[in-house]
Amino acid sequence: MKRTILAATSVAILMTLGSTQANAQNAIVIDQYGAANSSAATQNGRWNRVVSEQSGFRNAAQARQRGVRNFVQSAQHGSRNHVTSEQSGRNNYSVTGQSGSHLTARTFQGGHNNISGIAQIGSGHYATADQSGSNNISGIIQIGHGQTARTHQVGDGNMTLTIQGGY
Q1: Read out DSSP for 119-167?
Q2: Which helix (H) or strand (E) holds 19?
Q3: How far apart are CA 70 and CA 67, in angstroms?
Q4: Contacts for 108-112 with beta carbons within 8 Å, 24 or more apart?
Q5: What domain count does the chain have?
Q6: First vs last C-alpha separation in the chain
């Protein structure tokens, strides 16, 4: 009986810790291995950081940040993985790296002086970078088989670079 209560309490505490919002100058680090994992992080403020690494298959990661000088780093190794990063504010950075097959990566940024980078190695790629504001930079690199890259930028002084290789 004690073990059951202890296990239930531990699960409740872990669920509460995983669902809280992080405030200014916080870091979230997520490492997941195996199958069918997912992670989500929401942060408001400045100098926040999300680092997510997933290995296996059928994994998904999502990060949302609002504020100034926030950083999202997502790495996925395996197959059928997805990443979504959303940032609003200024001077934010989003970096996504994926290796495997059936990969999807999306980055949405609003504001100015934001940087987005997506690198995909494998097959069946799809990458989107959507930026609104001024002086934003987007870079997408895809190596493998079925690449699709879409970059949409609205505003002044924005730059984009797309490199695709393979067949």
Answers
A1: EEEEES--EEEEEEEES-EEEEEEEESS--EEEEEESSS-EEEEEEEE-
A2: helix 2-19
A3: 7
A4: 108/84, 109/133, 109/136, 111/87, 111/136, 112/136, 112/155
A5: 1
A6: 59
Name the 3-class secondary structure at 91. Answer: coil
Can you give the pLDDT at residue 17?
43
Question: Is 118 inside any structural domain?
Answer: yes
- What is the distance, to the nearest Å, from the Cα of residue 100 to the centroid of all Cα atoms in its chain? 16
Residue 137 lies in a domain: yes
- How confident is the model at residue 142, as a pLDDT? 92
Decide if 4 is inside a domain: no
Domain annotation covers residue 140: yes
Residue 2, SS3 per DSSP: helix
Burial of 29 (0-12, 13-18, 19+ CB in 10 A): exposed
Looking at per-residue confidence, does 77 or 18 come out higher? Answer: 77
**Statement: residue 18 has pLDDT above 70:** no
**Average pLDDT over every residue of 83-96:** 93
> How wide is the angle at C-alpha 56 spanned by C-alphas 130 and 30, nearest 5°?
65
Residue range of the domain that includes 50: 24-166
Q: Please, which pLDDT band fits residue 157 given cuts at 50, 70 and 90?
A: very high
Q: Tens of pLDDT along 117-134?
A: 999 998 889 999 999 999
